[in-house]
Amino acid sequence: MGTAEGTHFSLAIGNNGAMRLLVTGAGGQLGRDVAAHCSERGDDVVGVSHAELDVTQRDHVHGAVTLIRPDAIINCAAWTAVDACESDEQRAFLANALSVRWLREAASRTGSHLVTVSTDYVFDGSQAEPYREWDTPHPLSVYGASKLAGEHEAGPDAAVVRTSWVCGEYGANMVATVLRLIDERDHLSFVDDQRGCPTFTADLAPALRQLAVERWSGIHHLTNARPVSWFEFVQEIVVAAGKDPSLVSPIATAELDPPQPAPRPMNSVLDNFVWRSAGCTPLRDHQAPLEELVAALHGRN
After folding, report:
1. pTM, 2 dp
2. Per-residue DSSP letters for 22-47?
3. What is the rounded distance in angstroms from the CA atom of residue 214 to the CA atom of residue 12?
4. How many domains does the chain divide into?
5. Would you say residue 247 lies in a domain?
6. What range defines the domain where residue 113 resides?
7. Could you report the per-residue pLDDT of 23-59, keeping only the tens digit for each?
8. Domain holding 24: CATH number?
9. Where are the beta strands (DSSP E) in 80-135?
10. What is the Cα–Cα distance from 63 to 73, expressed in whole angstroms?
11. Which residues of 104-120 are buried (b: 16+ CB within 10 A; e: fewer)?
């Protein structure tokens, strides 16, 4: 058991680890899978949930990083309640921006490499083609603005990973939501004018580890392959669950009742240009990890 000033967390240490890693937000769907994957690869992993390390508290962050002295920090901590962020801008910027500053400061003291996760919401979605890493961000929402601020706080030496439509076995996401809804309703409606790339934590976690181990820097877009609309993705989930896709119908974002408080980018498709150009293996088409996740979630029920 390790204790940093004002912070209590357990050390989940692997044997003969290749790297010593601190994973923040390890209670969430992405952080949990990142910590598990790194442990499986033999790393010494310290995974901390929000309850164990509040990354908005500078003293707690500095105390924890100084105690652990990780080779790298993979920051999966965030406040991702997009609509709730609209009514609490201060909390959004504390959780998604200032926390990254504290992690960068602490990492610079210990020589740790920082990898932090950002979002497609830094773009306004008005561009017709997929967004590359150098396209100019223009967030429409408080959430997107707070995550963009977090990118700036990470500094030039960190790796910033923009991803989209994240789904994993342990968390609230579209796959889990649809599997619940199809047991409760005989008809579903989802928007067909918002497009993006579903990304699965089982595939994203190894990529985040690679960025940490190899100490990459700069902005990276990382998503599973093949863009779809939300309507199309929900149909795929329904089919993977063995149901008739005709129970899903398309609607326009403007038809949502009530409307979503936070505006969404219509085009969230991220071109994984840097990852691909560096010769790295692209993340899979999202169909395979979708089927794996549906099977895993059904197996738990």
Report:
1. 0.93
2. EEETTTSHHHHHHHHHHHHTT-EEEE
3. 22
4. 1
5. no
6. 2-171+197-227+267-284
7. 999 999 999 999 999 999 999 999 999 999 999 999 9
8. 3.40.50.720
9. 113-119
10. 14
11. bebbeebebbbbbbbbb
